[in-house]
Amino acid sequence: MAGPKQKTRRPKAEAPKGFRDWMGAELEARAAMLARVTEVYRRYGFDPLETPAIETVEALGKFLPDVDRPNEGVFAFQDDDETWLALRYDLTAPLARFYAQNQLHLPTPYRRYAVGPVWRNEKPGPGRFRQFYQCDADTVGTPTVAADAETCAMLADALEAVGVARGDYLVRINNRKVLNGVLEAIGLGDPEADAAARGAVSRAVDKLDRLGPDGVRLLLGEGRKDESGDFTKGAGLSAERVEIVMGFVGALRDDASATLGALRDLVGRTRAGAEGVAELDEIATLLDAQGYGPDRVRLDPSVVRGLGYYTGPVYEAELTFEILDDEGRKRQFGSVAGGGRYDDLVKRFTGQATPATGVSVGVDRLLSALRAIGRLEADSAGPVVVTVMDRARMADYQRMVAELRGAGVRAEVFLGGGNLGKQMKYADRRGSGVAVIMGEDEAARGVVQLKDLALGARLAAEIETNEAWKAQPAQIEAPRGELVAAVRAMLARAGG
Amino acid sequence: MAGPKQKTRRPKAEAPKGFRDWMGAELEARAAMLARVTEVYRRYGFDPLETPAIETVEALGKFLPDVDRPNEGVFAFQDDDETWLALRYDLTAPLARFYAQNQLHLPTPYRRYAVGPVWRNEKPGPGRFRQFYQCDADTVGTPTVAADAETCAMLADALEAVGVARGDYLVRINNRKVLNGVLEAIGLGDPEADAAARGAVSRAVDKLDRLGPDGVRLLLGEGRKDESGDFTKGAGLSAERVEIVMGFVGALRDDASATLGALRDLVGRTRAGAEGVAELDEIATLLDAQGYGPDRVRLDPSVVRGLGYYTGPVYEAELTFEILDDEGRKRQFGSVAGGGRYDDLVKRFTGQATPATGVSVGVDRLLSALRAIGRLEADSAGPVVVTVMDRARMADYQRMVAELRGAGVRAEVFLGGGNLGKQMKYADRRGSGVAVIMGEDEAARGVVQLKDLALGARLAAEIETNEAWKAQPAQIEAPRGELVAAVRAMLARAGG
User: Fold this and answer.
1) B216 to chain A, minimum CA–CA distance in Å?
2) Whose CB among A370, A378, A383, B55 lies 3.0–4.6 Å from B45's, allowing a Cys bridge?
3) Do residues A348 and A404 share a domain?
4) ipTM
5) Does B69 fall in a domain?
6) Is A64's Cβ below 8 Å from some Cβ in B?
7) In terms of domains, do B180 and B41 share one?
8) A288: buried, middle or exposed (CB in 10 Å: 19+, 13-18, 0-12)?
9) Number of domains chain B is built from
10) Does B347 lie in the same domain as B430?
11) What is the CA radius of gyration of chain B?
12) CB distance from B56 to chain A under 8 Å?
């Protein structure tokens, strides 16, 4: 309890910095969207998994307790026995821990999906929160790129399931091995000795969307000065080698076999490159067999994906329609999901290589995309509000809502204070379709008044409604015994 | 990254102490149960709210940063700006913060439901976890006990919605004010001066279920020695006063009006008592009007509820059927939900009294109750497994699952390694209903083999199945073009 000195100070009613609340229709829209995505995951044979929010820092792996407070990027704290714990920062690291822990009891391959919040201890910014949702599907324990192909097909299905039209999205696939082949071809073949230069090349390539080919060329060569005058040192490649890399990121052709041909020309002589091209070829064949053509899924050598742990195919789902950005300029909506093959995450625990591939959907990004195209779903119909005209009749009003609820109609008695006007304002705020009124006079005559609030709202919004008003009066009287039927009829009218 | 000395040490693949993973059918059963409960909440007019997992310690309120590490009972950690943060330990404290923060933009009364994990930094034990789910519904901003009555009715509806039969549960209602009247009647009327003795009486009464009337009598008087020989000091009441308290906890009669009469006799002369009895009377009347009789909802003066913050009606949902405990003894399943009126939680932030009432369902308790009565729901049907007889035909197999998924059938190609036997074992482990087989011979003849795995399992389980076997062969051949229809027919047969 508070000491005496704190007695007078009130706590601030605020969510912590970088955290937000979700309510009502927005929350329902998210739930509806996630239900559709996970239904697709399920149809592809994935089973649900929920790991706890907290893992040991050791298991999360990115961070180790060699400093007093290892909370760089994660929310970390020490358990009573001094073990460092942290909130998960994604859903993949916990999956690796879970799989390593339960391997013997799981089918092989193990397909799981997971939905839930993750936490990042980062500086919050506009639209940038420290808790956000992810929605992942991973296949653990199989090396075949058929699993990668399936994941790409599934991603396309999931986007269509939530309401993104075919033609408004593209799943783009590349292969880290092809990039490794390119690095080998330009003399940076040793992952350890050439680590710095390889990293610089990868980062440069990853910026193609943002900087365009010329910007990437500068970053591959000497370096680039940005608009603010800041200089980023480049990878220092010779002009000839820059063009090999640019040939790679620009290897996208009109169809998969032409793209594959261009890649083969570039890196087919390197071992990693040949392997990577063969895998992409297999993926393209399998997707084609399932009917996923280049209008939905496409090989695209410009996809790199930031995460260091990918070891093979990488993929990204991009929404191709345009929206207006904060400055009112048109731009493509961009990436909403991505993933790839990671063969070493489980090995950290077991010492055995365990091939795995999977995708993560950025839930908030996808939700804001659906908002932009008007495809948010939410069953946000407010409750029927039974008004309180006479407090002594509270039992009668409760009986009415009990009847309505029993018939599956969302309903409540107004439990606040105030006159009919205030009660109507409440009903309006709730988005109610119907208000029920029964005062002394109605009770004596055995009737109720039903106010059509949806119609009322339309009438207020439209001009040319005199005729509609006459044809559909906004208030009707019904016998008390027909309350449920009359309310239903009015709600149906509102819905039509 | 790890320093050189850690390079050889592998992290332990274990969830932290007191945390667990949820997977497959169990997770689906929980989701199905929560969907049913929240559907009832919705029907009563409640809207969803999701607050973040993390709140400031100041807002959570039970703990204050006057020690270096205020993590007693909660998982707490310091933000970059030194603010103490903690994982929420329930869903009510965040609601109070949210309401205080957004009051002006919310309807009054504000009805919200919330579902999600909460965290307690406590010693874990068998079946006792440090992360668990709660499922709450609260009405904020109205003083009328009609809100309490509704919450009790809703609790009854929710229990029936998840499959608890009428007669197998009871929602019991009491009122803290009546207990306060009892305390006044025995000379402990001052909440501050008599705090210690009042606490001792409340704790004694709360143990009625566990210790029976004689045990409570001892705790109200001099004290009680338990089986282990430990002595608990009592409240030190005189014999006469002990009997007044026992009269209160034993005031349950056959019907509400008789119970109310008994309470009126005991505490009707005290102000708190009279007010409490009048409120219970109103609740009973309203519930009766809605058709919730004593077979579902009942006034019961023995309900106390531990939490100090309740200020009026308190209620508890109890499952009355018997289960076997760990020692094989029969006992009632007991409480699965509880709540009550708390008028001071929002006041902490705003300084203004804000009446509120609400209920919290213990999700794991209710889930294990449903397990005990065989009412767990889960759509745990495994996927149709298309086996891989010939790796060169992978594209054909992928085409088959694409057709099945397109028709809404859960399906996957086997992506592991191994012969048909191993693939059948995998299908079995996944709970698959049907396996599809197409080798060279079938491909040449344009057919597929379908194996009825559900039937196979039944055949293996039953003895007298020779006839069934003949009537329903466990494997049939179908034209490749009729794959979807044939699989559907086989799945339908399995379901029948």
Assistant:
1) 29
2) A383
3) no
4) 0.89
5) no
6) yes
7) yes
8) middle
9) 2
10) no
11) 29
12) yes
